[in-house]
Amino acid sequence: MLLTPSQQIEMTVEELAARVGAVPLWRIRSVPIPGTATVQDMERIRREESVLCELIDGVLVEKAVSSKTAILAIRLSTILSQFVSARRLGWIAGPDGFTWLTKTTLRAPDVSFIARDQLPGNRIPDHGYVNVAPALAAEIYSPGNTQREMEQKRRDFFAAGTELFWIVYPDREEVVVSSDPETHRTIGRDGTLDGGHLLPGFSLQVADLFANMDLS
């Protein structure tokens, strides 16, 4: 439900940055007024404009996208899904896989893994969005992202219960793997990604993730 003018929140640029992190201002929706947005607003924009926004404490932030990052997200989610589905470990979601991290924060990582035992009855709800943080979340760094934004996302997911966080950097062809908010390791093109205790037996050569991006 939209707030009345007397209830609407006015924020300075500094207050807005503190709420959503170091996100370029052009990705922050001004309508509805930042601080008043709801999940219904998010869904309306998605339905009418085909634009994905995350909801962060009443602020709608457009997801940064590009053709290259979209292809990489599909490739990574497909590889993970083949492994997870064959073992009935849980579910893999793509860039529109929204999940509630808090009562006021609805995020959608580019790729995510929700373990079977994270959800009641080992099943995805028929309506709405899951209210648990994915066990594994991965973000593909897009031109519209900032490094500070990625660091904020990583903190948000770990605070909500995520156990493994990947940031894929297409231009550098490397992946930064975090097992907690402060522990990171960079895996280059010659290295191998693994799923740790969440996905035992999973491995992916980083070079294979970026294969076929140039077909010239």
What does this structure look like?
This protein has 216 residues and is of the alpha+beta class. The chain contains 5 helices and 12 strands. The protein has helices at 13-20, 39-49, 67-87, 147-160, 206-209; strands at 53-56, 59-62, 90-93, 99-102, 105-107, 111-115, 136-140, 164-169, 174-180, 183-187, 192-195, 199-205. A 6-stranded mixed sheet has the order 3-6-7-8-9-10, with helices on both faces. It has a 4-stranded antiparallel sheet with strand order 2-1-5-4, sandwiched between helices. The longest helix has 21 residues, at 67-87. It is globular. The protein starts with 12 loop residues before the first helix and ends in a 7-residue tail after the last helix.
Top keywords for this entry?
216 residues, alpha+beta, tt1808, chain A, 2 domains, six-stranded mixed sheet, four-stranded antiparallel sheet, 12 strands, 27% strand, disordered N terminus
**What share of the residues lie within helices?**
25-40%
Strand content: 25-35%
> Average pLDDT, to the nearest integer?
91
Whole-number tally of structural domains: 2
Model regions low in confidence, pLDDT < 50 over at least 5 residues: 1-8
Shape: globular
What is the terminal-to-terminal distance? 51 Å
Please state the CA-atom Rg, rounded to the nearest Å.
18 Å
Tell me the number of helical segments per DSSP (H or I, 4 or more residues long): 5
Q: Assign the CATH superfamily of the largest domain.
A: tt1808, chain A
* SS content category: alpha+beta
- From the 3D coordinates, which CATH architecture of the largest domain would you assign? Alpha-Beta Complex
Provide the spatial order of strands within the biggest beta sheet: 3-6-7-8-9-10
SSE pattern, N- to C-terminal: HHEEHEEEEEHEEEEEH
Structure summary, number of beta strands: 12
> For the record, what CATH class of the largest domain applies?
Alpha Beta
Largest sheet data: 6 strands, mixed
